[in-house]
Amino acid sequence: MNPRFRRRTALKGLAAAAAGPAGLAACANEPPAPPTNLTQADIDEAMSTPTDLTFWTWVPDIQNEVALFEAAYPAIKVEVVNAGQGDAHYQKLRTALRAGNGGPDVAQMEFQMIPTFSITDSLVDLGPYLDAGMGEKFVDWTWSQVTGTGGEIWAIPQDTGPLGMLYRADLFEQHGIDVPGTWDEFAEAAAAIHEADPDLYLTNLPPNQGAFFSGLLWQAGADPFAGTADEVLQVDLQSDTAKRVASYWGDLAQRDLVSTDPDFTDQWYQSFNQDRYATWLTAAWGPVFLSGAAESTSGKWRAAPLPQWDSDADPVSGNWGGSTSAVMATTQNPIVAAKFAEWLNTDSESANMMATEQFLYPPTLEILDDPDFTGQELDFYGGQQVNEVFAQITDTVTEDFQWSPFQSQVYAYYNETVGTSFTEKGDAVAALAEWESRIETYADYQGFTVK
Amino acid sequence: MATTTSETQAPGARPGTARGRESKRYAAAGYAFIAPFMIVFTAMILVPLAYAAYTSLFREQIIGGSVFVGFENYSRAFTDPQLLEGIGRVALFFLIQVPIMLAVALFIALALDSGLMRLSKFVRIGVFMPYAVPSVVAALMWGFLYGPDFGPFAQLAEMIGAAAPDFLASNVMLGSLANIVFWEFTGYNMVILYAALRSVPTELYEAAAVDGAGPWRTAWSIKIPSLRPALMLCMVFSIIGSFQLFNEPKLLQALAPNVIDNAYTPNLYAYNLAFVGQEYNYAAAVSFILGLVIFVGSYLFMYLSTRRSRS
């Protein structure tokens, strides 16, 4: 057999022969060429031409924002499809993209997944379609998260997850613990609180949550995939910063000063309700989520910034989660899809609705500066203005943090290495090296040049 | 199929030259009858299988696209410690779980058939009931029961002051999974065995009674031997089921992500290779090897058991 035998060509023939209609549809679905100079007239024409869009998202009730868009552009009909959340969504998305049809025009996409889909040419560069100065509407780091290594704009930010700390004011008071401002103080508090009450942990370290651990690396200043572009994969999990984070948490886990329950499980929900965890280190989407998940503890929680590594420097934070709207390369209507993604996340009414009704933490400066938003007092947090706390944290998130082009696999390896070292009270720094080595092996196998 | 049709029709058919034409027409009718099945079978089973086999001969990379690599994926699979470990794990599962499950199913079927059991209809339905619970629901339910601090077993243990067993720990996990599968499938196997028992001709029992056999002797010398085909069926189903273990570990993975890794069972591995790792070609090869293992296992079992019965 000829080793250079091209599979795609052969496949098209086979598909056309075996499954006529499906094969033909796949061939017809070549994405339109990107525009060279798009005029406002072109956009107006596209937006007034009857068009059907499909939008895959897991955001509850986003139909309401979509209805606002449809009212503003009556020619456009948007069908909202919930194809699952997180991995389930991406798996279906990838299947549809490979099939070449049946996929959405616009899809929900977490920041961390953008490189995974841009590397396979599955996203439309929105740069040519957007209004000038669009990036200035967003918090800097959120815009740099959606900007590709070649300056492409791969998506429009929708919500973010700057990391902070939610804590039980009542348990802190009961055990005479001050809100820790540094990680050293946090470790001391962890020891004190667990010693005082063996059933209580200062926090839970989820061993299955690579995204949270990435947020911690981000805060510490590690940027493991910095320099990754196209076929070059750079991975550095052996930096002093990364080792410092791993050994800090590995040590707490080894000494049984933090619990290591997988998060979003029954055990984990119960633990909040049964006073087993005194804090939740979480993102800006956490406060409202927790108020639903641990109703019985209402009024006892407060929000604070994440503890710091360096108490003398300006405070810094990382990000966990948050997502965007991305336009799929399979779309037949890139102009309309791009404008929809833009409108959904930047139109005042729509963005406000997302922030106040779906409780998506906003990436736009307009809402973050709006006293109506930041001044909201939440009963679950004893009337504290939690949005304001996180608005200040948002400003401290550093801009440099890059994701790998195969983030799901990176997280799978995290569970097998670093995560497992936490649950088994092993050597987290050694596990960090193992994590890196598995990533490198995989990257090499996938054809990347590993550096 | 077609020949059988023409043969059964032959006695009624007219002799002589007309017969050839007639049987051809019958043959055509036969093909027409099986056509709907064959079309669906081809489109839904044969073509996807052929496509998967074809896919498994390539290697598609995120960078560099797809190239033909012959049997490289297979040679990689045969030396892949994750796959081999997974196969070893399900083999162990099979060796321990299946004999227990079938023995219990057999015992219940014999007890029901003996006619000596009270509430036998209730027991029959009760034992079968778990099979009617979708395995996804079953795994979720057991996941709750196994909960390390707040699950009912843990609570119970705490109440009596004992240490709660950690059902989700790495050294117990396979047993916890075996327990779920036992709960789900004992009733199913019991029904197959019970149905087979009901079809044993009663003359045999009468003959045995005349020869002075008691109920135990009848069970051992008449019932169990007549259950051979049904037991073999259950066994083959169990071989397939064990090696394809997927739902239960997939669902418990959320509760114990650091115990059940992405290669815990071969099926889970193939799934994660395709959908997490984007290694579709290798996943296809792994699936074929798993299919091969199941085929060889089933065949070996059939071969050994028929050889033993002849000797």
List the helices and strands and how they pair.
The complex is a heterodimer of chains A (451) and B (311).
Chain A: H1 7-18, H2 20-28, H3 40-48, E1 51-56, H4 63-72, E2 76-81, H5 87-99, E3 106-110, H6 114-118, H7 140-146, E4 156-168, H8 169-174, H9 183-196, H10 210-220, E5 232-233, H11 240-254, H12 266-273, E6 279-283, H13 286-293, E7 301-305, E8 319-327, H14 334-346, H15 348-356, H16 365-368, H17 371-374, H18 386-394, H19 407-423, H20 428-445, E9 449-450
Parallel strand pairs in A: 1-2, 1-3, 5-9
Antiparallel strand pairs in A: 3-8, 4-6, 4-7, 4-8
Helix pairs in contact in A: 1-2, 4-15, 11-19, 19-20
Chain B: H1 2-9, H2 18-55, E1 58-61, E2 65-68, H3 72-78, H4 81-113, H5 120-132, H6 135-145, H7 152-159, H8 173-198, H9 202-210, H10 215-226, H11 228-243, H12 247-252, H13 266-275, H14 280-310
Antiparallel strand pairs in B: 1-2
Helix pairs in contact in B: 1-2, 4-8, 4-11, 5-8, 11-14, 13-14
Please provide a written account of the structure.
The complex is a heterodimer of chains A (451) and B (311). Chain A has helices at 7-18, 20-28, 40-48, 63-72, 87-99, 114-118, 140-146, 169-174, 183-196, 210-220, 240-254, 266-273, 286-293, 334-346, 348-356, 365-368, 371-374, 386-394, 407-423, 428-445; strands at residues 51-56, 76-81, 106-110, 156-168, 232-233, 279-283, 301-305, 319-327, 449-450. Chain A is α/β, with parallel strands linked by helices and 451 residues long. Chain A has two domains: 34-160 and 321-374, 3-Layer(aba) Sandwich (D-Maltodextrin-Binding Protein, domain 2), CATH 3.40.190.10; 162-319 and 376-450, D-Maltodextrin-Binding Protein, domain 2 (3-Layer(aba) Sandwich), CATH 3.40.190. In chain A, the strands form two sheets. In chain A, strands 1, 2, 3, 4, 6, 7 and 8 form a seven-stranded mixed β-sheet that branches. Chain A has a two-stranded parallel sheet with strand order 5-9. In chain A, strand 1 (51-56), helix 4 and strand 2 form a beta-alpha-beta unit. Chain A is globular and about 70 Å long. In chain B, a hairpin with a 3-residue loop joins strand 1 and strand 2 (65-68). Chain B has 311 residues and is an all-alpha fold. Chain B contains 14 helices and two strands, in the order H-H-E-E-H-H-H-H-H-H-H-H-H-H-H-H. In chain B, strands 1-2 form a two-stranded antiparallel sheet. The chains are: A alpha/beta (451), B mainly alpha (311). Chain A binds chain B through residues 1-8, 14, 18, 87, 91, 94, 119-120, 207-208, 230-231, 261-262, 264-267, 270-271, 274, 276, 405-406, 408-409, 412, 415-416, 419-420, 422-424, 442, 445-448, and chain B through 47, 51, 54, 58, 60-70, 143-144, 147-151, 254-258, 261-262, 272, 275-279.
